[in-house]
């Protein structure tokens, strides 16, 4: 069997490795336009903040390690044409510009995503930095320690973490977002408010509800003009989101409106023997029970593994995702999964939510920390739709519990009676997850 894997970030790496495990004698050709694989881009802010022991450890595989596993790595090459019906690819060597064509039995599309770069005047200037891939990370790291002022555009996870780390390093930071609060697509308003206060306490200027209209290079510095003001700094960093890098396949496979490739539960696209995984593809989002675009490394890894499991025949079905994620900002841990009241309303889904604040362990101990917990559910079926947790104590694993509950379509009543341990070092007699579930069940009964 001859398999082409197009792209080698998380989904591509795990697809190739799992295919080799399933079909040891398969010829697997991986085409990657860059010179690195498996870069953990979620670590860029930590590297900028000088928390990384060795940048080489931000990669869990290398081209050499994959070659040692029997996978053919074609680095610095790009698939420039694809006839998916014929399973024929045109491949270009980016060093020599030479092109060749080849035909495969199976094709795996793991082209990932690309940064959203709006057509704003001056956005391609030298003082505008991106935060997507290894080259972006290197370029930003080279200047980060010397930057006195920075404007970060985008208050999602990437922008939020960069703004935090740079402010902790003594940089004067302005955080700009077109939405009216930080982490607006990740957290409900009451959680955003806690993070916004932390930014303000650390001197970060929040320019929320403002859209960037122009970047002006002044020679020594750059001015970012918005609908609400103008902010001058040494550099600007763009982190406003991603879109699928799937233009090459438009019209050949079913896609969402944004270009995310739709697959069945076995990662098979609408084109026979063509698979897709990772940021190039849509995911089945269990809280809404519909397809959505949620570019997360966790989704990419699991989808890549499933490509390998199903490359010969449909065997293991995708269980869907809850978009479970977490972030730590100024020592505050925040984790979420599924929908909250705001995101449910935005999708037109009827929901009910409740929030509790309580200490994570008994007050008779010398120290404890407050935990903010929220649960969102369907008021008709009482099925759990999402959860949020925040504390200076690490409560992020609680989101994994709610993620599993959503996937299994558990109700708030079931969660309220689920067996969780009690030990004073770790929690209350009624765990904070149980506590918010009990409160939800009580509120739903009113």
Could you characterize what this model shows?
The chain is an alpha/beta fold and 446 residues long. It has three domains: 139 residues, FAD/NAD(P)-binding domain (3-Layer(bba) Sandwich), CATH 3.50.50.60; 111 residues, FAD/NAD(P)-binding domain (3-Layer(bba) Sandwich); 121 residues, FAD/NAD-linked reductase, C-terminal dimerisation domain (Enolase-like, domain 1, 2-Layer Sandwich), CATH 3.30.390.30. The chain is built from eleven helices and 25 strands. A hairpin with a 4-residue loop joins β13 and β14. The chain starts with a strand and ends with a helix. The model has no long low-confidence stretch (mean pLDDT 97).
Q: What is the CATH third-level topology name of the largest domain?
A: FAD/NAD(P)-binding domain
- % residues in beta strands: 25-35%
Number of helices: 11
Q: What ranges have pLDDT less than 50 throughout 5 or more consecutive residues? A: none
Percent range for helical residues? 10-25%
Q: Mean pLDDT, rounded to whole units? A: 97
Strand order of the largest sheet: 3-2-1-7-18
CATH architecture annotation of the largest domain: 3-Layer(bba) Sandwich
Form type: globular
| Count of the separate structural domains | 3
Q: Which CATH first-tier class of the largest domain would you pick? A: Alpha Beta
CA radius of gyration? 23 Å
Tell me the distance between the termini: 60 Å
Number of strands: 25
Summary, kept brief:
This protein has 446 residues and is an alpha/beta fold. The chain contains eleven helices and 25 strands.
Give the topology, please.
Layout: E1 2-6, H1 10-22, E2 27-32, H2 44-48, H3 63-68, E3 72-75, E4 77-83, E5 88-93, E6 99-103, E7 106-109, E8 113-115, E9 128-130, H4 134-144, E10 149-153, H5 157-168, E11 172-177, H6 189-201, E12 205-208, E13 212-217, E14 222-226, E15 230-233, E16 235-238, E17 242-244, E18 274-276, E19 283-285, E20 290-292, H7 297-309, E21 325-329, E22 332-338, H8 341-346, E23 352-359, E24 370-377, E25 384-391, H9 397-407, H10 412-416, H11 432-445
Helix pairs in contact: 1-7
